[in-house]
Amino acid sequence: MDVRHRTRAVVASLAVLLLASSAWSLVWYDRGRLTIGGIQLFQDTEDPTVYYYLPTVPSLAFTPDGHPQLLCLKYVDPDGNASGGILHFLAGLDLPPERVEALEKALRKKVPGAKLAGPVRLLEPKRTAGKGASGSGKTASFRVVSAILASAGEEGGLTRTLIASGHAPLTPGSRAAVAATLDPKGATLLWGSFSGPTSDVSVTIEAEYEARVRGYNAVVTADVTTLYEHFSMEMNQQEGYTKRELRRIVDELRHDNVLKIEVFDRSKSLGLDSTGIEAILDLVTDKLTALMFDQKAGLAKMPEKERAIAKGQVRGRRKAGAFIEFFSGEKDPKYVTDDQFVLKSRSDLKRTTFSINLAHDTTVRVPVYLTGNMRGLYDRYRDDPEVFRVVNLADPAFEVREIHFVLDGAWAARFQDLINWVSVQARKVYGSERPTVAGQLQLTPKDVADGTLERVFRYPRLGETGEDWLGYGYRVTWSFRGHGETTLPAGGGWDESTAPVVTLEPPLTITEAEAEVDTAAMADRGVRRAVVQVRATRLGKAATRRVAVVSPDSAEPVVELAVAADPGQEPQVRAIWIMDDGSRATGPWTGLGEGYVWLQPPQPPEP
Q1: What is the pLDDT of residue 398?
Q2: What average pLDDT does range 414-423 have in this prediction?
Q3: Is 384 helix (H, G, I), strand (E, B) or coil?
Q4: I need a labelling partner for 263 at 20 to 30 A (CA). Which of 205, 291, 413, 503 fits?
């Protein structure tokens, strides 16, 4: 899937649908990873038998009945005034169910009892400065790569108009919609491109996923073994005036002290603070060293040695008593046989083991770049008029114009939370001799959740000549949750236009920022919870809502905010601090205009 060129312009619309993920997953980055059939599988951090798959490439979306969600239309005007083409398709990241089933079977052969829980949870990349594909100063996460789909103002450009929202379909079931109108040469080239093994249209998605990685690990192992063995043997044989002694003594002491320290450290590359763990490691090592090698009071203390022959343990020759010597007159009587044998054996074994594992994990965002090519479509669907067709504009049946009202992709993900519905009134005024054609169009949160981001207003030409038949009027009404309704333009007027596509954007601005909670200070100052709130003014009415609850042991103290407000009205954020004793302290409101806010708990009162 080679990426050759970069899309710079589009005429119709690009929309991204972000649906709620069925499950939240955190995977290991550097352990348990498998590759099956070219698809990477990642192990869950909590359950080693649970795996998640990473989609390989974006692909063309299909309807439930297997029909491709693609339209490549070439229209021909015999007079040569309006020839060209239209390209419209939906792209996604879903794997077919049969592919997922086969993948899980192959996984169980490698890991008995394993199960596939779904795709890895993908996130849009962190915003960066500089001009992106959409020209908004932010990097787009979804792009169309094509030489043909370049604006007519550029060298070789064959596309009349094109718009890209830049958001990728990262959640299961979501879609990215792309539409473009082409000039006659562009339509012909694109049509021929689809008939080849590699088309000129590729889609690329830039995303990130969160993974846990081992940043610091120290293992200390101590093994102390003291073995003392003693063997003592003595033989004493007396017969007559002779005496023979045989003595053998074996003393053996073996002292094995092993101290092993293994340290794995990549804290600097991951930006971790490992000074606390290193201090603990130094303390443990010093104490163990003193304990193992101190021969007076430590584990290396020498055992008390066994005496080979204790005093009086083997008697010498037997002498006659004083009574016998006096009456018998014998000074040196005969010895009787006195055979004695003494055997000793002693074994003292003292063994002590110690082990400690100091580990520090962290969560990183891993970038993912996926690119897929729309190839081989013409050979498969060239006979399907719903996918590829040619239209003769001279046919009166096609003297109908379509105006597409498309919801801005940047608002698709926020529609559910902010908007009840958006309604469009459109009309075509022909004059006194012909009736006015009017239409009422509406988008609801359910429509957006199901993937519908546009409504179409159609009106016939009815004999209109020149450019007059292209003109129409419209007005848009927005209904906001908790804030009422507003109609644009104000005062009951109409916006006049000749454009084939109108982008629907509410009269609000979105402020993106990060609010980071000082969790270390929370633990030191006796704060149990931090309730993060935002305040914004919409349609002149201020409202406050809770966005997050952070505790001292939260893995992610950074709260990402995207707040919609009236133009010129800066949203604000604050924290309500709940102490260990149940009391509360309310922090001040802080504006989000700088894009970053540092929330610190209050200092405890002086004792």
Answers
A1: 60
A2: 89
A3: coil
A4: 291
Is residue 360 a contact partner of residue 555, using CB atoms and an 8 Å limit? no
| Amino acid at site 41 | L
Q: What percent of the chain has pLDDT over 90?
A: 19
The per-type count for the chain, helices as H runs and strands as E runs, is 10, 34
Q: Where does a domain end: 308, 336, 360?
A: 360
All residues at 6 or more sequence positions from 99 whose CB lies less than 8 Å from its CB, including other chains: none
Q: Which of 74, 81, 87 is nearest to 148 (CA)?
A: 87
Residues 389 and 333 in one domain: no
Among residues 342, 483, 369, 501, the alpha carbon closest in space to that of 418 is found at 483
295, 329: one domain: yes
Is residue 277 in some structural domain? yes
Same domain, 262 and 235: yes
Q: Which of 206, 204, 201 is nearest to 190 (CA)?
A: 201
503, two tokens: 């982008």
Query: Using one digit for the tens of pLDDT, what is the confidence trace for 319-352?
Result: 555 555 555 555 555 545 556 667 777 777 777 7
Cis peptide before 64 (omega within 30 of 0): no
Strand positions, DSSP E, 323-414: 338-373, 388-392, 400-407
Smallest Cα–Cα separation from 261: which of 220, 210, 306?
220
For 262, which DSSP code?
Answer: E
Contact 73, 191 (CB under 8 A): no
- CA-CA-CA-CA torsion for 320, 323, 326, 329, nearest 10 degrees? -40
User: What distance separates the 2 farthest-apart alpha carbons in the chain?
Assistant: 172
Per-position b or e across 349-384, b if 16+ CB within 10 A of its CB: eeeeebeeebebebeeeeebebbbbbbebbeebeee
Q: 201-247: per-residue pLDDT in tens?
A: 888 888 888 888 776 666 767 777 777 677 777 666 655 544 555 56
Supply 538's token pair. Answer: 């919409």
Residues 111 and 166 in one domain: yes
C-alpha–C-alpha distance, residues 88 and 68, integer Å: 11
